[in-house]
Fold these 2 entries.
Entry 1:
Amino acid sequence: MSTPMLEIRNLHVRVEDKTILKGVDLVVPKGEVHAIMGRNGSGKSTLSYAIAGRDGYEITDGDILLDGQSIVEMEADERASAGLFLAFQYPIEIPGVATMTFLKAAMNAQRKSRGEEEMKTPEFMKAVRAAAGDLSIETDMLKRALNVGFSGGEKKRAEVLQMALLAPKMCILDETDSGLDIDALKVVSQGVNHLRAPKRSMLVITHYQRLLNHIVPDRVHVFSDGRIVKSGGKELALELEAEGYSAFDEAAA
Amino acid sequence: MTAPNTAKRTVHLGEAENTLISQLLSAGARGAADELAASGLPTRRIEAYHYTDLKALLGEVPAIAEEAGQVGPPKFRVPGAYRILVANGRIQQSTTPPNGVVVSEAGGSSLTERDDVLVMLNHGLVEKSLAIGLENSVDPIVHIDHRIAGAPAHTAGALRIEVAPGATATVLETFSGSDAAHMGNQGTRVELGDGARFTHIVVDLSALNSRHFHTIEYAVGANVQLRNLLVNSGSALSRTQMFGVFAGEGAHGDFSGLNLVDDGQHNDITLDVNHAVPNTTSQELFKSVVRNRAKAIFQGRIVVSPKAQKTDAKMMMQGLMLSEGAQILSKPELEIFADDVQCGHGSTCGELDAQSMFYMMSRGIAREDAKAMLIRAFVQELLDPIEDEELSEALSGVVEEWLSRPAKSPAI
Ligand SMILES: Nc1ncnc2c1ncn2[C@@H]1O[C@H](COP(=O)(O)OP(=O)(O)O)[C@@H](O)[C@H]1O
Ligand SMILES: [Mg+2]
């Protein structure tokens, strides 16, 4: 078996003296899309932050491997350059930082750390325009400060735009469907599906099953109280929808 | 409010005060010398100097500056500006002024006398002040390039800027000099004729071991549009005090400033805006970024006179602390004696936003670069209103230079 894209072993994470992740085990092979479903407060975002390397998310036990390499000692930016991308549940508004400046800084920072040449402005503009077009993003939006004044849907599309431009090998999408109407959901899902590739894996975190009608996962994991309590095929999402999360709380106990 | 009983109390005078007194006497300013001998330099007990205790902080006063030798190229340069080089208080170099600019000299300080030690010293020590008349709209920026050259020197200088009614102009004053423990005491009086549109940019890039004091007065006529921006990134100790008086209706003033403060620096911006007549507006925006063990101070007072109805004044102070030892002290005050006014003030102080940092880093931007981007973003609001691109770029250059200063470990 080839090296999985993401492997999480017995992950325990503490945030401000509170243990939130209590032994997560997860393997996402290359080219696969896995879904994590769980009720609010079960620790899904905490998992995504811990993988991405947020300050203050202390790993007290376990390991996270990206393409076979442990990343737990790396800074967030090093993890990004190693090919990890997190689409935020709540993208951050950063007044005073122009979206284009930010995109270019991010792309070139990653290129630089991989020893690649920096992208020139015309090449960069062309890439942005193409990716924005695919996601029905108005270029006007990109002239504004990063995420400032973006609607909920625009923020989520902007996240997928960044993902397309940065071309990561492991994408984590944290509730990318929340706050989207059905049309926006379709556009965003198409954007994500467009990025599915044999050398790229995805972890799609969601609260509702409806996203998984559009982004069809290879496997589904049920998350409860900081752990994966059940794993199965895509039909598990439907089962969850029908029976509710409480049926799975038993499994956790 | 402790009004010191100057008549009887004997003040212990330190070395700095004695040097200043003898310098005042040599300059023939006996009155000022006597006054300083009686009261000493202000301490933290004097309200206006509460955060900048000059007696404790001033240190050694260097000898009065001699005529400067040849000085190097400017630290801050705006291509296309009309530049007057003033070295050690004397005009050293200027070319033919552009149309509408009249350069002359006058006797004594340009400042209004007031009960303030820096103003008193300026009056006592300045022999000749520079006068810039802006008789009609002037296109090029007028750049007064103040330098202190050579060995540690004490320089006092004064400038009067007179802007004719209806004229539009920009004056830039920069302060820099050789790497020595200088002390500079500058006075600038700006008189704005009715309907003038005036921008005044002041940049302190003095050596990091020097002391810089600057008193600025604005006499604002009717229907004037005034914008000022102060940028401090130099000096071990600095105090820039601004006194603005709205004397004609319909005028608006934007007062703004940026303190970029690093290890060991103590930079004080003190602002006093007086709305003396009805129907004037002002906006005050001051920001401080402080790194390592350093101090930024902002004192802002807005006074609205009893007859100054319909005054609209909003003052905001924002601070960004980048290290544990950083200190930002701010004291906003409103003194309102009219009833039909809109006045307010706010003050915020914090560290770099952790969520923003994580967001940027999660996209591959290294920690230090993410910090720099957030600091630039914090500062940008002050630079945005500057319309002249070359000036704006030169100001961004000051921010960049500050950001790229080698990180020091905070002194314990
Ligand atoms: N910074 C924090 N400090 C303390 N507790 C937190 C913090 N962030 C999240 N939590 C707690 O961790 C738990 C999991 O939260 P989260 O990961 O956001 O869940 P989900 O994304 O599944 O809704 C919740 O109980 C939440 O209150
Ligand atoms: Mg969440």
Entry 2:
Amino acid sequence: MLEQRYTHLQMIALVVMRVLIGWHFLYEGVAKLLKPNWSAAGYLKAAKGPMAGTFKWMADSPELLDWVNLLNMWGLFLIGLFLILGLLTRYAAIGGALMVLLYYAANPPFIGYFSSVATEGSYLLVNKNLVEIGALFVIAVTYSGRYVGLDRIFYRLFHRRKRTVSEQELTGATV
Amino acid sequence: MSERDDKDLRETGNPEEKRGIDRRDILQGMATLPVLGLFGYAVHKQVSYEDAQIAQKLGTAQASNLREVKVALLGAGAQGQVLLDAMLKIPNLRIQAVCDIWTDFNLKRVINTLKKYKFDPHPYEDYQEMLDKEKDIEAVVIATPDFWHAPHTVACLRAGKHVYCEKEMSNTLEGARSMVLAARETGKLLQIGHQRRSNPRYKYCYNRLIKEAKLLGRIVTVNGQWNRAVQPDLGYPKRYQIPADKLKKYGFKSMEQFRNWRWYKGLGGGPIVDLGSHQIDIYNWFLEANPVAVVASGGNDYYSPETREWYDTAMVVYEYETPEGKARAFYQTQTTNSSLGYFERFMGDQGTLVISESDANYANAIYREVTAPAWDEWVQKGYVTAPKVVEVKEEKSAVLDVRESVSPDEHKIPVEFADLYHRPHLMNFVNSVRGLEKLNCPAEIGYESAVTVLKVNEAIQAGRRLEFRPEEFEVS
Ligand SMILES: NC(=O)c1ccc[n+]([C@@H]2O[C@H](COP(=O)([O-])OP(=O)(O)OC[C@H]3O[C@@H](n4cnc5c(N)ncnc54)[C@H](O)[C@@H]3O)[C@@H](O)[C@H]2O)c1
């Protein structure tokens, strides 16, 4: 049972943030899926920072690259879809955060590292990737999927015995 | 059940009573579904917008009254894919069959791509079977390894197909000769894939700047290069390994050799043939001559000759007797450092042209020698852009050092080329099949280019200057 207390407006704000991030993921996935023979090879090879070697190694092994490409395209697609729908919300949010963490690691705005990829702003340690990770963290630890999302229906279906849980017990929202 | 009942239940909190999901759960549970509708609509809009942009840029939208041409792709590797991407942007071209021996990997990938584009091509492993079965195909586009070009091209021509064959025409002169003869005998078209021959920028430089405006004056020297960074051998996903007996049947000793064929004697020609042939072909074209002699130095300087039999580095000087007089042309290719990428530079007594297929290589400019007549007329006519304005630095001394010349004016070549590199050349081929155009690189030109380039490996081996006899460039 949840101890949190959120107003409905707070819950709606969480849902909106979740859907926006979901949209972003979904389109990143769709755009790659629509491109015939999209590959992460170029991105991986251009990696900077302390993990650069690992990313280059991924790009050099055709076997691994195949998997990286598939996971990337479908991972983004499914996580985006699930975030919008509010389905398995916590897992989608955690998975999404891990993916963005990899993107962050591939081009970290660390002091003294210079990216040859153009960025549109000025960043010091924190960039938009890291902000998105933070937002996904919030999604992962709250219950917006049970407020607005398919998780609500599934929760009702699979916790039949707890038929009478109140809205607050379900989502943390105060009724 | 009504909403009110449910509320009542919550309020009373009676755990005994089993109830289904209430309407509120359904509504709230699916409240974000419309977002997907909106998303789908937005993606649809975006995709149509992108397609329209491409169609507009390539002018494919208007050209739909042209006759449909049915083609097959033979060789679906890296270059096969590049050609395919270009073919997909050619109107009224039907890709009806694809043949490749790497059936589980390259063949499958290309067939899947084509299905996405609403084609339903027939897959083949054996080109003979394809030629036997696909009676209504008019043309075949060949992108197999060099040593397969001759057998594939000759078989296709004899089966009554027109052929677009990738460069290098063949890894041997006998092979290349058999292709020219087969094209002549069958009367079918044979285009060799030196795609710069159809590139609007190259055509513009030759026709407008060199021939018409004569901005270079007499071309005396040429230099060009293709420098590449160190690259590991090409690999392959282990689960798509081709069985040894099948590899052997198609002339490969191992998967490693199958992937890296261009480095092996008897299969490819190494970097000078792979990269050099594109640019040395332009030397012959712009100088309007075939060379009379060549000296070359090269070797296995960096990689192990076990896996890379051909020379990783080559430096070449050709001697030409052009209609205007003597000219010398230097070419270098190395696979160990990529500085300045690839370009060709033509130096005349009145100007210098630096040209490249790529926009990224600091090229595509023309420079006027200070001693040459002014180019104002050509700037006014729009043949070249106005010269780049350079800030004049405070002179250290009023007199210019006699050893130095004033640096030439830089003008840009006003030809934007945003297209896929291979599309104009393929387009020229398809339109020639339709009888609307003439080939820009017919078999004879491909042959002259092959003679010019293959001699480099010979010259490196021989370690001395080799001469070309004029008859060497002819096939009779
Ligand atoms: N014009 C250009 O800019 C350009 C660029 C790259 C390559 N090329 C040329 O394209 C050709 C192919 O090069 P690539 O880089 O794609 O090589 P690749 O090794 O990637 O592809 C060759 C393909 O041919 C298939 N193949 C081999 N033998 C075959 C046979 N007997 N029948 C059917 N399929 C067969 C292989 O399975 C493979 O898929 C070469 O001649 C190369 O010189 C041209």
